[in-house]
Amino acid sequence: GAGVSQTPSNKVTEKGKYVELRCDPISGHTALYWYRQSLGQGPEFLIYFQGTGAADDSGLPNDRFFAVRPEGSVSTLKIQRTERGDSAVYLCASRLTGTGRGQPQHFGDGTRLSIL
Amino acid sequence: QKEVEQNSGPLSVPEGAIASLNCTYSDRVSQSFFWYRQYSGKSPELIMSIYSNGDKEDGRFTAQLNKASQYVSLLIRDSQPSDSATYLCAVNPLKGGSEKLVFGKGTKLTVNP
User: How close A48 gets to chain B, by Cα (Å)?
Assistant: First the structure.
């Protein structure tokens, strides 16, 4: 497909478990973002990749959260020792860069993470 | 003060009316502003982007930006029931070169047939 693809669409796991969430951006988009959205709130920034490197990880809440993008395309968000407060929709977005100011971010459908 | 503030609503308008959605932001150096529409259980979808003071029109949608007042608005003319959704205001604060977006909480709009 032409859009941002996220898998799985839903993930239910027990407190303390490890989870990985995957994002496949739009082809050719070098910028990739992870956001987290809780019920009734707007998306909250977690981390931004430009190519393979994390250019801004200031939104990661603590060291249980980590993200990689080893080949500059697919990204994986990893959460260790999950807590019930991690339950949210995790959104991935990608953006075309190098073509002018303010290219918009395009979002995937998200992964709904539920920690029991 | 939150970085991006919106009235959470809900905002209810009759079909055919103009819906007016408002947003204020705190970081004066912000340069890029976006309105996203989010249907329940779905991902945000870009509706409008605006970068310069004034109005920008696209079909039934008009975005208005006033950087001096740090204010962005979205007008929806001839509102339709299919416009019922949560509208998110997003700002790129340009801190440290990051291209992240800072979102408001969103305004829930209901258009009544």
Answer: 7
**Between chain A and chain B, how many beta carbons pairs sit less than 8 Å apart?**
63
What are the phi and psi torsion angles at B47 (to 5°)? -105, -50
pLDDT at A32 over 60: yes
- What's the full length of chain A, in residues? 116
Residues on chain B touching A99 (C-beta within 8 angstroms): none
CB-count burial class (<10 Å; 0-12, 13-18, 19+) for B81: exposed
The pLDDT tens digits for A64-106 are 999 999 998 999 999 999 999 999 999 999 998 766 666 789 9
Closest to A66 measured CA to CA, from A19, A109, A12? A19
Residue B93 near residue B3 (C-beta atoms within 8 A): yes
Subunit contact B92:A102, Cβ cutoff 8 A: yes
Give the mean pLDDT of chain B: 92
